[in-house]
Amino acid sequence: AGAAVLSVMGLTALSTLWVMRRYDYVLEDINRSLEDEVERRTHENLRARDALIMGLAKLADCRDSDTGLHLERISRYSCLLAERLADIRPEIDEAWIDRLRLASSLHDIGKVGVPDELLLKPGRFTPDEHRRMQAHTTIGADTLIAIRRELGDDDLLDMSICIALEHHERWDGTGYPLGIAGERIALEARIVALVDVYDALTSWRVYKAAMSHEEAVAIITESSGSHFDPVIVGVFRSIEHEFDAVRMDMHGDAPSCPVVLAA
How far is Cα 259 from Cα 131, in angstroms, rounded to an integer? Predict the structure, then answer.
C-alpha cells in the first residue's frame, strides 16, 4: 500500500510539474506576443511622430526654399559633420546622429510665423524687420515645446527645440535670441549653424545669387572663432569635398535662379 501511495504521489508531482512547465511556456509565449505588439505599436507611433514633424518642417521650408531640397541638404551636411565629430565627442553615437538627421530639418520651423514680405524681401532689413525675422527662432522652439507638452518627454523633440532656438547663436556670443557663447550653445545647434550658413551661401535666393563652394568655404573659415565653433570648422575643412559632392548632387548644374524667373 505504501508503495502504491508513493507511486501515486510521484505521478501527481510529475503531473503537477508538467502542468506548471506548460503554464510557464504559455506565459512566455503570451509575454513575447505582448512585447512584440508593444514594440510594433511604439515603432508605428514613432513613425507617425516623425512624419508629422517632417510635414511641419516642409511647411516652413516651402515658404522661402529654392528647390525644396534645402531640408535634405541640411540633414546630410549635419550628419557628415556629426559622424566625424563622433571621434572626439563621446555623446555622439548612432542614435544621436539619427536624431540629428530629423531634428536638423526643423531648424527653421518658426518661419511659418514670419510674413512673406520679410521672407521674400530682396533688400536689406530695417532694424525692426530684422527683429521680427529673428523671432522665428523662438516661434519654432515654442511650437516644438507645445508638441512635447502633448507627447511627453522625447529625445528627438529635446534636440529639435535646442536647434530651433539656438542655431543663430554665435560662438563669440553676438548671436540671437539668447546671446549665449561657446560651449553654452548646444552642440547640435553649433553643427546646424555652420551647415545652414553653408547651404544659404551656396543656394540661390530671391534676394541673392548662389556663391561657389570655394567662396563659402572661405567665408566659413574666416568666421572660425567668431561665428562658428573652431573645432567644427576644422572638421568641416577636413571634409569640405564631401560637402561639395552633396551640393552638386542636390543642386546639380541648374542655373543660379529658377528658369521661370530667369526668363
Answer: 33
Query: What is the tens place of the pLDDT at every residue in 159-215?
Result: 999 999 999 999 999 999 999 999 999 999 999 999 999 999 999 876 778 999 999
Handedness of CA 163, 138, 145, 39 (dihedral sign): negative
Q: What secondary structure does DSSP assign to 228-258, as a single string?
A: B-HHHHHHHHHTHHHHHHHHHHHHTT--SS-
Model's pTM, two decimal places? 0.78
Closest CA to 99 of 77, 125, 75: 75
CA separation for the pair 200, 194 (Å, rounded): 10
HSE, side-chain direction, 13 A CA sphere, residue 162: 19
Helix, coil or strand: residue 108: coil
